[in-house]
Design a protein that fits this description.
The complex is a heterodimer. Chain A is built from 16 helices and ten strands. By secondary structure, chain A is of the alpha+beta class. In chain A, the strands form three sheets. Chain A has a four-stranded mixed β-sheet with strand order 6-7-2-10. In chain A, strands 5-8-9 form a three-stranded antiparallel β-sheet, with no helix packed on it. In chain A, helix 1 packs parallel to helix 16. The longest helix of chain A has 25 residues. Chain B is α/β, with parallel strands linked by helices. In chain B, 32% of the residues lie in helices and 30% in strands. In chain B, strands 2-1-3-4-5 form a five-stranded mixed β-sheet, with helices on one face. In chain B, a hairpin with a 5-residue loop joins strand 4 and strand 5. Chain B is elongated. The chains are: A alpha+beta, B alpha/beta.
């Protein structure tokens, strides 16, 4: 009896280890620790080494691309990060089929055993980061392609992504920079219908209305704050900032216990929110009027997880029922083995908490008109601030910056 | 007993699944063959689009009225689709076909920077007799430009075993007279394709 229990415990431990892919989790944790410490290149090196040594299971390939892509983006290696996000998109596209064998595995163990395809929000942000990468890499036409893919994701997943305003502003900007003005104008108008503050991107919308010859442009002109209008009238160029702040949402496992069994399901917990208000000023500390659109990543992520909550719960219930029946069947032949199996099932009942954890808590797109000969742009979030060096002679193209707090 | 059957069945399924993945094959396909794995743009489409538009340009417009072959410069075709398509493949094919037809001459837009750099290098370092003349590059008479667009529709969400998708592509190409700004020729090539793929697989 004692031998049987020992074997059972060993088997359970082995199964648990295999099922949860503990090694891969450790690799991601190590890479993220470098990233959070301000060394994204070291994080990429950890991931690349693990991938080369086949230390990351195929089912976690998407996470590899996403974490790697974001770290490359933070390192300023935009062409490389764009490639990583394209690889992520391709992986999602190729694994859209429902796998019978994969689903069977999840019914006997848990969702960790299947390929992670990302929450709907993560799929949208894959395209968003690809857009930013292409824009920063000087390839606006490719950013516009990603903008169309992002629009497809928004259309497919509907209301759960309504709060993804940053992505919508980025879509419009991508079309604008690719000189696809009709698409840009449509995207700005759609954005305006969702914005809580109609003045947020009114100047950009007005400019697109002018470009496509729409007479309705004047209505946006009226919404622009007079000081912003004056600043844009000075012909001093424009700066566009992609500002990320804080640490994004992380999933944790929740459980419902009934008797000796349990059902597990994932939910999001906040790791840290971006705190403080965002202020922009010139070299003399003079506040600047800006256009801005922001997204709270946690709330969007939670809404998309909620949107598939019924499916998650239904599957957990089905899995619980199946495991219960299997244990009961075995109990008639071998009560001890049935108890071991029950223990294994109990331990395996773990919610899939995989996620794109290096995401920020908030993403903000800021457009700021520059005064002629302005050389410094100061960005402040709470107590933190950064100074950006401007090219005072650049008038024709917007000056682009990625800032992280 | 039932449990043992279940285990046996699971092992059998796993074995079949494992063995099924071993059959990899490779075969040659003619570049001219019409082969499509899904509804999206592929090399067969590139060939068809380039062939259609080249035929149109060669057969519907004659710009060599004065006996001198007109000079064209090819601008990149703007990609306004939802796919990362290299449109330079299309323009390269069209330029090659027009060159082979012998009715047009071309100057290269993509090599401009290289030409300037090479000329500067020759001026600084080359033997006088072998230097390329500066300021003697041929000017283009016409700009060839275009836009590739797509419209993609997927079946609405509902209970089904297959997912249908339809994609429409159009490439509009035009020839603009550099002196007058007149659009001398314009045409389009269209493709529409529907594909269906199973939602459930092994």
């Amino acid at each position: 009896m004692l031998t049987c229990c020992k074997r059972g415990a060993r088997g359970a431990a082995l199964l648990l280890c295999l099922s949860l892919g503990g090694c891969a989790t450790a690799v991601f944790d190590e890479a993220r620790s470098h990233y959070y410490a301000g060394d994204p290149v070291a994080g990429v090196a950890v991931l690349d080494k693990a991938a080369a040594e086949e230390g990351i299971p195929a089912r976690d390939t998407l996470l590899l691309h996403l974490e790697r892509g974001l770290m490359l983006y933070r390192a300023g290696l935009f062409a490389e990060s764009a490639k990583a996000f394209l690889a992520a998109s391709d992986f999602i596209e190729q694994h859209q089929k429902i796998s019978v064998s994969g689903q069977a595995k999840t019914l006997l163990s848990n969702d960790w055993s299947t390929a992670y395809l990302g929450e709907y929000s993560e799929q949208l942000w894959t395209h968003s980061y690809a857009m930013m990468s292409f824009i920063r890499a000087g390839a606006p036409e490719s950013a516009a392609v990603e903008a169309r893919r992002a629009l497809q994701a928004l259309e497919t997943h509907g209301e759960s992504l309504d709060g993804a305003l940053f992505s919508r502003a980025l879509i419009a900007l991508s079309f604008e920079l690719a000189e696809q003005y009709n698409d840009a104008y449509v995207a700005y108008r759609q954005l305006h219908e969702l914005l809580p503050d109609a003045a947020s991107m009114a100047q950009a919308t007005y400019r697109m209305a002018q470009r496509v010859g729409s007479e309705s442009g004047e209505s946006w002109r009226e919404k622009v704050a007079p000081d912003l209008w004056t600043q844009y009238g000075l012909e001093g160029g424009e700066a566009i900032l992609f500002i990320s702040a804080g640490r994004g949402p992380r999933k944790h496992s929740g459980s419902i216990f009934y008797g000796s069994e349990r059902l597990s399901f994932p939910s999001y917990e906040l790791s840290s929110r971006a705190s403080g208000s965002l202020r922009l000023s010139d070299g003399q500390g003079q506040p600047l009027a800006v256009q801005r659109v922001s997204t709270d990543m946690s709330s969007v992520a939670q809404r998309t997880l909620d949107a598939r909550g019924k499916k998650v719960l239904a599957k957990a219930l089905l899995r619980g029922r199946l495991k219960h029946e299997l244990v009961n069947e075995l109990r008639d032949d071998n009560a001890a083995a049935a108890e071991v199996l029950n223990l294994v099932f109990f331990l395996l009942e773990e919610a899939d908490t995989r996620g794109w954890e290096s995401l920020p808590a908030r993403l903000t797109l800021v457009r700021v008109p520059l005064a002629p000969q302005q050389q410094i742009l100061r960005v402040q979030l709470g107590e933190q601030s950064v100074e950006l060096a401007l090219d005072p002679d650049e008038r024709d193209l917007p000056q682009l910056f990625s800032v992280h707090f | 007993m039932k449990f043992k059957h279940l285990v046996g069945l699971s092992v059998a399924f796993a074995s079949v699944a494992g063995l099924g993945g071993c059959a990899a094959t490779t075969s040659s396909v003619s570049p001219g063959a019409d082969v499509h794995y899904d509804a999206h743009y592929d090399f067969s489409d590139k060939k068809r689009i380039a062939d259609d538009l080249t035929a149109s340009l060669l057969n519907t417009v004659d710009l060599s009225g004065s006996g001198v072959k007109p000079v064209l410069v090819v601008y990149p075709v703007a990609n306004e689709t939802a796919e990362h398509i290299s449109t330079s493949g299309i323009t390269d094919d069209i330029r090659l076909a027009l060159l082979r037809a012998g009715k047009y001459r071309f100057v290269s837009k993509t090599q401009r920077d290289n030409l300037m750099a090479e000329q500067a290098h020759q001026q600084a370092n080359g033997a006088a007799a072998s230097r390329a003349a500066v300021g003697q590059q041929m000017g283009a008479d016409f700009i060839l430009s275009g836009t590739l667009r797509s419209i993609e529709k997927q079946q609405v969400k509902q209970w089904r075993l297959n997912k249908k998708e339809m994609v429409y592509y159009s490439l509009n190409l035009e020839l603009t007279d550099l002196s007058s700004g007149e659009i001398t020729w314009a045409d389009k090539a269209e493709l529409a394709r529907e594909s269906s793929r199973p939602i459930i697989g092994w």
